[in-house]
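Friendly challenge for the regulars: who can give me the structure tokens for this chain first? No prize, just bragging rights.
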Amino acid sequence: MQAKSELTVQPLRLDFPDTELGQTSSLDVELNCRGTVDREVAVSADAPFSLTTSSLTLPASASAPLSVRFAPVATGAVTGTLRLTSEGDVLEVGLAGTGVEPAVCTTPLQCRLCGGANAPNGTACESPCLEQASCVEGVCVGTPKVCDDGDRCTADACDAALGCTHTAVTCSEPADPCRVGQCDPVSGCTTSAAADGTRCGANDCAVAHVCMAGVCVERPPPEGSRCGEATPCQPAPTCQAGKCVKGPVTPLQPAWSVTAPNGTRVTFPGTSDAAGNLYWFESRSSVTDLVSYDRSGALRFRVTVSGRPARFSSYPIEESPLVLVSEQHVLAVIDEGAENTPTRRVELHSALDGALVWSAGRAELAPAIGLAAGLPLYVMSAGATSGTGRVILNLRTNAGGAAWSSWIVSLDGATGTVQWTWRNTYLSASVIDEQGTVFVYEDLFVHALYAIDAAGAQAWRISQTNWSAMPSATHRGLVYTSFPSRLFAAADGGVLSELAPSWGREPLVGFGHVISTENSTFCSRTMTSVNLASPATPAGAWSAVPAGCFRDPVLTSRATVLVGTTQTSSGEAGSLYEYSLDGGPLFTCPLEQPLGQRSALIDDAWVSAGSSTVSLYALPGLKLAPHGWVTQAGGRARAKTPQP
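First reply, four minutes later:
Bragging rights claimed.
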């Protein structure tokens, strides 16, 4: 049978921006040749759309952009088709654009004439924030308008478009619980006495602390008064016959659930963005889709990717197959080929509509790293740097036996262009700090911890003993390692301290604490909180969550740990727990649906997934911690870098 390659094109529709008559707009599609045989492709487009070529050669296992131009000859909407013909295959891309009349300068701008020249000095002009204004060297100059309304409860300003604005002042609440903040138009922010009966301390059902005439006093608590705090699954306890009685615990009910069709498996890595949009994979038969839902449960997009979601082992930290590179782009790590011997590639998709931006596998990366012909290439992990949109890949190959090679590769997130590479023999775990420095561990014949700066240069190297100092987290100048647990200075690799426990893994770091999982069997783990002010002694430790295997703890904005448990061996669904950093339990809420994967904490909601269902639970007041290593892959982006 003659070998044949598959020709694909993305996207399947181009919508050009409104274009003035006499002007030209350009957009690109990407052609991909999947296979081992080059493809000759004939291309054509309906007028007024055009191309710079009528044919091209697409090499095997390669991709190339094709530019389509739109030059309208009349006003109004127009559609057309881009056709790609190769060896009997015909692919079509829809084209659409609108021609508009060229802009005409009918009214000069303030102090500027049509054509760009300055208006004569002294020409009268108007500005919402100026009085008695005139033009001076092309600028409208005058006396600033006074916007003071005489009310100290408003912040007065002048908006260049709206004129004077008066925004209500928000007075801060006083530390005294029996005083409340208020604003007086004459004197400004002040305080007044809180309403009598306002709680100002504990109520143990023998004595209640309440406000009376602005002072916190002790009083006998009335029957039915609140003596504790409500939880997401239990009302606040009340005093009944002198005792604090808790209400019934009810299983958490999802605000919404998305259930994939029969035969479809969900891979949910907990990836989310700042708006609370969620990203995951859905796989059925030989097809995998990248999907995104917003926080209300509405589908944002669904696009097909080129293989299966990559499967990583969590050792010593989670590696994610979905990485939010920026608020505009999400990176998918894809397994290709046979299940037992997969190769991997990465695909960057738009986080707005899922459109493929670029794709990189062996064919695209081999020239940049000098990979010899015939050798496989494996993407061991993927991450991204906060704020810069750089993609960081950990690559590995084997030439047979002990002949291993590894690379850390930096790609431009917008284009996929290789920026720099750094080579070693055998690299495993890696994390990235806020400055873009990559900390990576060498662990085959030589054991060492490296720091590679944002320009790809080795900043320092620290030799280690066998299976030690594998980087697991980084935050604000510190690098946390597992096997054993240590703190290193990110600047120079200096050992700052040994941490307890000595075999911690999958840490969270924030609020001056390291919370890590001890190295015990998966379903009987313990979690330990180490106070960085006294790192040699744990500030508190607590036993593994009962009745199930806990997964994917996250650090919340109120300095607590939120963690769910998987389905128990008896078939019961798991539970959701919140702990203080010293291990004190705050709430336990049973779940009606089993938890089997990672989870996400977005503002006021927790999202979990089973094998085919993703569910969102409302948790008012709970948010992800704003800074630190707050998930087991860094931040909400799962990019192996801290929450910025």
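The chain has a mean pLDDT of 86. Residues 362-369 form the longest helix (8 residues). Your move, everyone else.
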